[in-house]
Amino acid sequence: MLMVVLVLLDPPGSLMHKCIHDEVQAGVEVIRGERSLHEPKLAQEPRARRSTKQRGIVGNSLPQPITIKTWIPVESVRLSGTENRRLEAAVEEAVRTVSSILSVNRSMNPLLLSRDFSKYCKFVWKNSSSVNHNRCGKANSYYRNETCLDVTIPDDHLSGCEVYPEADSPHRTVLRPEGAGLPDVDFVLYLQIRATDKCRAEPVLAYAVRCQTDWNGRPVAGAVVVCRNRLTGQKYSHQTAVQTVIHELLHVLGFSKDLFNTWKDCSSNPVGNPCSPRGKVTHSDGSGQTRIYSPSVISAMQKHLLSSDPELGGPLENLEAAADGASSHWESRVLQGSIMGAVLGDSTTVRVDPITLAAFQDTGWYAVDLRRAQSLVWGDGEGKSFGSTKTCRDKSSSFFCTGSGLGCHFLHLHKGECQTDPYLDGCRVYKPMKNGSECWKQENSRWSTEYPFSGEIFGFDSRCFFSSLSREEDSVSSVVGRCYRHRCTGTNRYQIQVSGSGWVDCPKGGAVQIKGYQGSVFCPDKRICVYPDVFPPLKDDNIPSSSIKGDFLVRIASRSEVAVATSLSVFASLCLLAALLMLYRKIRTHSNRIRTVDPQEL
Fold first, then answer.
1. Per-residue pLDDT tens over the stretch 269-301
2. Alpha carbon 196 to chain centroid distance?
3. Where are the domains of the chain?
4. Which residues are catalytic?
5. Domain 398-555 is of which CATH architecture?
6. What is the pTM of this model?
């Protein structure tokens, strides 16, 4: 099993999430299933090391979007209506996103998870001449169940297990019968909502484990814990929660240092046939930077940086890396903003990037829709040396900064402050400021100490520009990040508007002066009106609009259904009582009328 913990750091502007996946992964074990009778066998493995059957693959079938089924166990805590809506909306959107990207070869059988042979079996027949060689000869009397991150896996999701009391007799004792499995499911995610020690020890949002893989190494089951306290409060961000779950899912589904060298090469194999091992794909580039050297990753890096250098594998984060230099995150200096970075920043700055999707294409387990990748703006077209500790300090790239001044985040949606962190190895970048950094929020004008003499305008179509504008004729303003309206007139062509001015052409890579102001506005090149998928949130980030549909097997939901049923029963009872009361009043009224009728009128 692999475990992922996301720690919330004190934010600039929004919550930042540090993933300590590799730290907690070391002591966790993964159960691997065996081939079913429907699958071609490559080499016989000792039976004692294998568990029960995994699923057969439909021959020559086209890959289908991965079906991820979410199961909430009964041990999860009760949620309020708001918490439940937030959780369901975030998980559903994350699962839908991953399913739209990754496809797998569809199985003909239900997903049936394996039991841990070493847990239920106490003794194995070792005599190679015996009929039951490598079969279990004696059960472990302490065996109770299979778990995944403290979740008890239902027996119905698990294969059966048996023992053979005699070495040469076919007689067997069934310990647990075969479960029905999960039909039409490629991956099951056990989702817990709890306030665990990890949740209390750190401001943790969620952590997850990979529990099982199939015979080919592809993960088929995992668990995630969502910390109850993170679903409450005004600072809750729906998009941040979605990105966190996506990050967790991508770790569990294959982006893990323990899996990199188990990826498969399926380039010359028909669909449904076994693929060849890729072997070791992580190597040092000679400068001490460990990279993933697999075909799609190399190609994606070369395309991104506009370089044909064969050394451009996918760089892995060196901070807290293992002795071999490998880690389960991209290097922050080179791939800032990637969904698989070690730190997730403001949700508007995180991208499901093409380098990550290329890595999944090289796993051999998935067909990947590369069209679903979001634009990776950081370092785009900057060349092979981009992000090195040597070049980041010499002002050769506009993506990095020096000192501690104020400017613009590289996506130009936020004002920024020039800062570093442990993952940047001394390099400095403009990070969103703690308060009022979003140019696209109209209410942020209250945070601007220079408003209105700097001409700033906050709103949905505003972006951050380096500017020295000032209405004060005698003052000379320093160049800082300021928010002005913009509108695109073409690719990499745009106009700006400051307070009190009309629309003015802003020449890319140049500067423009505005009538009535001292100073200039500097116009970035290849940043604004280039990437159509870089824009502010379209709705309130704290109000999820979606809800869970068919991809949830929610056992805990039975409580909600009981609660709803109980509420309806109470409501119906009240309605019945009200109706009886009205009837009683009518009867009394009618009786009174009868009693007061004049006998002469009869």
1. 655 567 899 999 999 998 889 999 999 999 999
2. 20
3. 282-387, 398-555, 566-597
4. 248
5. Roll (2.30)
6. 0.85
